[in-house]
User: Fold these one by one.
Assistant:
Number 1:
Amino acid sequence: MKPFIRSLLLPATILFLSHDAFAFTVVIDPGHGGYDNGANYSVGTEKRIVLEVSKKLAKLIESNPQFKVKMTRSSDSPRSLKKRAEMAQSFSGDLFLSIHANSSPDSRAIGAEFFFQHQLPPEKSSLFLARREEHHGGRISDEERMSFGPAHKNPYVKSILEDLIRTQSIHSSADLSVHLVEQWKGYKKSKKYVIQQAEFYVVSNVPMPSVLVELGFLTHKKEGPLLSQKSYQNKLAQSIYDGLIKYKESLDKTL
Ligand SMILES: [Zn+2]
């Protein structure tokens, strides 16, 4: 390249690369908030625990200039599921992470679970939803119950191209789930991490790869109290961050 052209391009490139538009935007969605406690046990409320972990994760992501972070809530305020999906769109996120904590009437239930976008036929979906409600022991909030309802059905007029984008997004979400599991450093006795396809409202209604992370069970006698501890929360935030980095690396390789 001729030197004078290079001298023209270099400052422009630096300007270009430093621009925010080139950062990879991660939208963090701490579940519940305000009047909606989510799961509520003596070790703490789900809404508080997930906000604490989300804030720690946001700090880690912010420290990396490759990323930009947005949150659907950063205080104890309620957000409808529709509002969360709308916010994710308005942030032009590249990735959506919804953070929750689990509960079960079975006190042995333990470990993190990762849910990504849904692709099951309706009859299987109903079975899944019924099992899921059972799993929550009927203690789920109205808002959460809504999230298990059928996500919007694609009107006939929506193009094949849109379906392809959606399929791509589902594959990316599955990839992200795998990286998150690989990097997970949760409670050491938890051997099983579940990856499932689910029709949660938030992960099905955002036009970007999205995963819902259940950090662990508040109802487990050992895992529950850990979820409230700052050091354990740091470990979980670091796990999710490490998963994100690996996901981004694999994405960059395909470009
Ligand atoms: Zn929840």
Number 2:
Amino acid sequence: MPIVELLGGKFRDSVRVYADCQVEPSMDFSAIKRVVEGVLERGFTALKIDADLGAYTRDYRRAKGVPKDRFNYTADAWEHERMVQLVEMVTTAAGEDAAVAVDVHTRLDVTSAIRLVRDLEPFHLLWLEEPVPPENVAAMREVKRSTTTPICAGENLYLRHGFRDLIEQQAVDIVMPDIPKCGGLSECRKIANLAEIYYMPFAPHNVASPIGTMASAHVCASVPNFLVLEFHWLHRDYWSTITTDKEDIIKDGAIALSDRPGIGVELDEAVARQYQFPGTTWFE
Ligand SMILES: [Mg+2]
């Protein structure tokens, strides 16, 4: 049977996918527009960018003779304004019909995060991802309660118990377990079910191959509160050749589930071996 049937059956036949795209902090509007238009032309209706500036800020500060401490979480006025400008350029390039999510990878302190999420409210983001680290639920909740920008977190949490406080204390608006990593398909469905009690959407993090992505799609189809699933292989040209079907499983920004047994796609081992990262073992 298809896995989705073993998980209880389908709420939907098609799973919406968003593309993580390579917008760099140093890009100007025309460069950003090219990246965003490339994603939309492939049929995606939602995308995500990284807005934490990291090395870009450190280079800027070094040039000004005021080095930035890489371990400090405070965003200064320049960094704050640059993050807001970046989001403004991306949402302008994306237009009204495409949804934009923004990730800052837990890099801010609470006050920097609150200032940012409030100033991003006019852009109606799909979500702002992990403004602060998710382990301190009270700090995350403080950020969430300060703004109408939806807050999403959870890509590095594990099992139901790792998500319990975050969900029960309503410290985020959206949960984003990484399905292959958080404890498996059945475990992840339970996390989604717990979130559903709080009317909280479920938008899984995903950096997997077509195999892991399709497995994740089965969970997404089986829960009512699914929002959108990540796709992170935009720049790997073997996305469509690493499976035996030799087809892109994503069409028009969505994955249609088949009636095949199990996951429904199979790895082409010869292609996978070709792209195996040096120094890694083969399923040992
Ligand atoms: Mg993230």
